[in-house]
Every structure is written in structure tokens, then in C-alpha cells.
Amino acid sequence: DSQKWVVEYFKKKLKQPISDAALKTCQTNFGFICRMVTNGTILQDKDIIWFDNHIKRLLAIEDKAAVVDAEKPKNVINIQDRIREKASDCIGELEGAFDDYMLSNFKENISPYGIMHTRGMKGMHVTHIIEWAKKIRAQYDEALHTKDEQLREGYSNFTKPDLISAS
Questions:
Q1: CA atoms of 48 and 56, how far apart (whole Å)
Q2: How far apart are CA 10 and CA 134, in angstroms?
Q3: d(CA 55, CA 137)
Q4: What's the whole-model pTM score?
Q5: Alpha-carbon distance values, 47 to 3, 7, 9, 42, 50 (Å)
Q6: Is the dihedral of CA 74, 80, 83, 84 positive or negative?
Q7: pLDDT tens, 46-86?
């Protein structure tokens, strides 16, 4: 309750919020005094001095916290991260289209260029997409030419022409 009354006093009388860091340093009786002052109690001179000093100390803590917050580096997304994110979104859509192509028994007509165009891909994005496509193609080429029984079993639901078409 004491901390709640400190927060209430700062909102109503001082017209500013108080941070958790400053609130944790409050003495319990300070909260009760805040409640009394909020309800109209008039303090004696020595109590006013104590109360004002306590408020000044809390405001100083607030100022220090504001300086520390201002010095913290903000989480800035650089241009490379944005490029990777946009390319990744497009890759997700291309993977979905590729899955649809495979589910249609390789008969559905998909247009990767159309997908990339509608997504606004530029050369800087396409390099990431090409790397993804090379990895996918390498997987299907390996499945097509492998002697590994487990890998063959994993791709056994595809015929050889299907794997050639997919790669």
C-alpha cells in the first residue's frame, strides 16, 4: 500500500511518474505520509523538511535513471538486417509456392519471378534468395544421385523425373 500511495502522490501532486528503481528506495513511512498529504493533512515544519528532502532524493534518482536510459544504445536495425528480413519473407513465399508445385504433382505453373516482383525484390535481396535456391537444388541433386539408403528412403515418395523437375 505504501508504494501505491507514493505513486499516487507523484501522479496527483507532482504530475510525474516515479520509476520502480526510485520506488524501491522509499521508506515505508514515506508512503503513508504521501497518503496523508494527498488527503489534505498539513505537516509540521520539521516534517515538511523531511518530506521535501525525501522527494528531492527520489527526483535525483529519477534524473540518474533518465541519464542511464538515454545512454543505453537503442536497438537499431541496420540495413543488412532489413535486407535479410525482406529476402527471408520472400523465401518463405517461394517455399510455399514450391510446396504447392510439388503437391500438384509438378503440374501447377508457378512464377518465382512474379513472386519476387510483387515482393519488390532488388539485386541486394536476390543474392540471399539465390543462396537459398542453391541449397535446395543441392538437396534434390544429392537425393537424385546418392547411394545413401536413408536419404533415398526419405525421398522415395518422388519419382526420378519428379526429383529432376524439382532440382
A1: 12
A2: 61
A3: 68
A4: 0.50
A5: 19, 20, 16, 10, 5
A6: negative
A7: 988 989 998 888 888 877 766 655 566 667 778 888 888 89
